[in-house]
């Protein structure tokens, strides 16, 4: 089981993670919450409101929230502990990559030494948030 968030900066996201009882016995679980401050468990919803026990074939829902605090990708995990076993649920938040396209070709023209020519280029970003900078390659 893998929980993946696709995010933009400064937004809060929520995803539902289901813990299914695949044994033939009534069971319950404990969890170790995510360690980073970006992920948190908002609430747990059990099949019965008055009991934390999960019948065979039933599931509990973990509502996991993610708060994007930076532009990098984030990783964490939730550890689920039952009477018979324990397992980890990876949490991954991936920033949407920028997709830059040039609307017109980049023709920088030629100029004499000491002269100056200004050129304007139109670009469009159809992807995630990012900052772009065009730089001159050093003469090789």
Please give a structural write-up.
It is a single chain. With 140 residues, the chain is mainly beta. 0% of the residues lie in helices and 41% in strands. Strands 1-7-6-3 form a four-stranded mixed sheet, with no helix packed on it. It has a three-stranded antiparallel sheet with strand order 2-5-4, with no helix packed on it.
Task: Map the helices and strands.
Elements: E1 3-7, E2 12-20, E3 30-32, E4 39-45, E5 59-67, E6 74-81, E7 86-95, E8 100-102, E9 123-125
Residue-averaged pLDDT, rounded?
83
Helix count equals 0
Q: In which order are the strands of the major sheet placed?
A: 1-7-6-3
Q: Could you give a short account of the major beta sheet? A: 4 strands, mixed
Estimated radius of gyration? 25 Å
Share of β-strand residues: 35-45%
Number of DSSP strand runs: 9
- The ordered H/E elements are EEEEEEEEE
Q: Could you list the spans in which at least 5 consecutive residues all have pLDDT below 50?
A: none
- Alpha-carbon distance between the two ends: 50 Å
SSE-based structural type: mainly beta
